[in-house]
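Worked Example 4.2. Consider the chain below.
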Amino acid sequence: MDWRALQDVVTVAETGSLSAASRRLNVSQPTVGRRIEQLEQQLGAVLFTRTAQGLLLTELGESIIQNAQRMQEEALAIERVATGANQQLQGSVRLSLIEDLGIFWLPKKLAQFHQLYPQLSVEVNIDNKNVNLLRREADIAVRLARPEQPDLVCRKAGRFRMALYASTEYLSQHGTPERFSDLKNHYHVGFDTSMGYSQQRKKLESLFTTANIRHRSNSHMEMIEATRAGIGCSVLSCLVADTHEDLHQLYPGKIYHDRDIWLVTHSEIHKNARIRAIFDFLVDALEQDAHRLTG
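Applying the procedure from the previous section yields the following structure tokens:
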């Protein structure tokens, strides 16, 4: 039995489609489909049924999925142990960050990193959602909250501030709000619900009337441009917003949203030479840029 086919079954069951599974596994969709079909032929039974909602496990599929998931977890554990034992400063490291840090802050830092470690390469995953480090979706993640999963090495590396901004064009058309109550008469560019809601973010959004929240986005960079275009006021990262002369912080020092920055990796791979090299480099770089990250 081909283990890769069982891994395909687990991934398709979790994602609900061949296309989503192929993206996660980084193989072609026909390859995933072919391996599952060959496994079904070996077993003499169908593992998935096609529905309007996607691919769903059959009764047999449900009965074997837990065994396949345990096999996957053991394979990942073997991979983490092997990675942790590698002390060579060469190869690649997968790094996951939010847009603000990954697009606006990271590239210049990586230019310095590659001068120090020319034999190392970095695969950057820009995602505002948390990746699964236990499944090696990334080797290192920069997060704005300390994860609660066990077996992770976490290092606090600074603070990340978001504040309320509006563009010059918007303020010229709608006026500058002076009291907090004035925001009830202003438009707001908000976060998409898929981005999650902290208590601070909920409190900030409550300053606006629901009817005046006329734009939402799951992209921090898109929110920057929407605010610059004059659509409304928005909570933006000071790291990026402060570099645009046409953006003005409202109620400085009074309305803001601070988050701790955490560098996270799995405990079994933390001692790997290449992972430790970029982990320590990023800690130093974030601490050096503390003033930029907090506006």
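Residues 124 and 132 are 15 Å apart (CA to CA). The chain has a mean pLDDT of 87. Compare this with Example 4.1 before moving on.
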